[in-house]
Amino acid sequence: MRVDLVRCADAQLLLEGPAGLGVLYDRHARTVMRFAVSLIGLGDEADEVVQETFLLAWRKRSSVVAVNGSVLPWLLNAARFEALAARRRRVRRESRVVPLDLAVHDRAAASSDPSGLQEVLSGLSETDRAVVEAVLVDGLSYAEAAERLEVSVATVGKRLQRARARVRAGLRTAAETSKGGC
């Protein structure tokens, strides 16, 4: 005997397998989507919240609590937590982006002396110069540079840190010398 899924209560639908989840989705997805949009706005994030909510319902189908035969309250609560997590991910992602200030870049480029930089770079050890060239000039990742130079990733990071400090100090010294020498 085939169960008529459209007439089943929500809690029963979760136990009926993927077809039951499909009916449950059809029944409540629009409401969950409106709720998600009210929390985080329109867009892909709201769609993702809805998908994650129903995926969570599927994973926890044996422990989902129905209220008066409906799992909608459980779905909305799960959607709220998913929306909060999506908002945290967005804030974290956006905080990593640093806007380029062209005025600062132009001032730095105008005040830098390429011959002074070449002089400071020539004072680095051969290995440190190779790391600087691989990562900063060739644009390789630390892992790619480590593979090319046959050293560990940690060595690449440490050598690059040391090279940057030496270049900074050398350029600072060169700038002070040029100011004082006039």
TrEMBL record:
Q: Which CDD domains match?
A: Sigma70_r4 (cd06171)
- What are the protein's UniProt keywords? Sigma factor, Transcription, Transcription regulation
InterPro entries assigned = RNA_pol_sigma-70-like, RNA_pol_sigma-70_dom, RNA_pol_sigma70_r2, RNA_pol_sigma70_r4_t2, RNA_pol_sigma_r2, RNA_pol_sigma_r3/r4-like, WH-like_DNA-bd_sf
Q: Which domain of life is it from?
A: Bacteria
Every copy of the RNA polymerase sigma factor 70 region 4 type domain together lies at 117-166
- Positions of the RNA polymerase sigma-70 region domain: 24-92
Question: Could you say which protein family the record assigns here?
Answer: Belongs to the sigma-70 factor family. ECF subfamily.
Q: What is this protein called?
A: RNA polymerase sigma factor
The organism of origin for this protein:
Amnibacterium endophyticum
User: Taxonomically, what lineage is the organism?
Assistant: Bacteria, Bacillati, Actinomycetota, Actinomycetes, Micrococcales
